[in-house]
Amino acid sequence: MDNIKGILFDKDGTLIEFFSLWEKIALGLVADLANGEDPLFQQELLASIGLVNGQITANSILAGGTTKDIADAFYPLLLKESCQIPEPFHQWVEKRILQLTKDHLQVIQPITDLKKLLKQLKDDGLKLGVATADDQETTTLTFQMLGIDHYFDFIGTSDHYEKNRTQI
Fold first, then answer.
1. Most buried among 29, 90, 105, 115, using CB within 10 Å?
2. What are 110's strand-pairing partners?
3. Full DSSP string of the chain
4. Which runs of E-coded beta strand occur in the chain?
5. What is the pLDDT along the chain (168 residues), one digit of tens a residue?
């Protein structure tokens, strides 16, 4: 292990339990946008980001997309239904996801004893980083709530790094 200098983690599903928080975020976004109307339209919005029959589909926007991807999936459906669309829409989605995360901090659960794990890795001299499709504020809030933010040397988020960036 002497050749290993650092570890780059993914956030959701690797460091924290994924489903409980992101289901609440998706349902909250859709409730706001559909104003509680037409359950079929709500299902269509949820399916557009990958929440189908209470399950997050693999390789869906919800499983690995960015806030912008979520906004881009919702937008044409909202136009088609002549819904009131908050503008600028991407920024509204970003702010709403942050607020929904704050509203549901109690459901954020680490996959393991992250404090113990990350401390041991740092004590072993490793650099630690995270790469996530989430936004910086939401990621920072999550890590602060878990008390693990100080362990990371690098946090790469979709709103601070280009999607296809080859060198960090």
1. 29
2. 16
3. -TT--EEEEESBTTTB--HHHHHHHHHHHHHHHHTT--HHHHHHHHHHHTEETTEEPTTSHHHH--HHHHHHHHHHHHHHTT----SSHHHHHHHHHHHHHHHTGGG--BSS-HHHHHHHHHHTT-EEEEE-SS-HHHHHHHHHHHT-GGG-SEEE-TTTS-TT----
4. 6-10, 51-52, 55-56, 127-131, 154-156
5. 578 999 999 999 899 998 989 999 999 999 999 876 789 999 999 999 999 999 999 999 999 999 999 999 999 999 998 888 988 999 999 999 999 999 999 999 999 999 999 999 999 999 999 999 999 999 999 999 999 999 999 999 988 865 554 443
**Which domains does the chain possess?**
6-17+109-156 (3.40.50.1000), 19-106 (no CATH)
Q: Is this structure's pTM higher than 0.85?
A: yes
Check if the beta carbon of residue 29 is closer than 8 Å to that of residue 96: yes
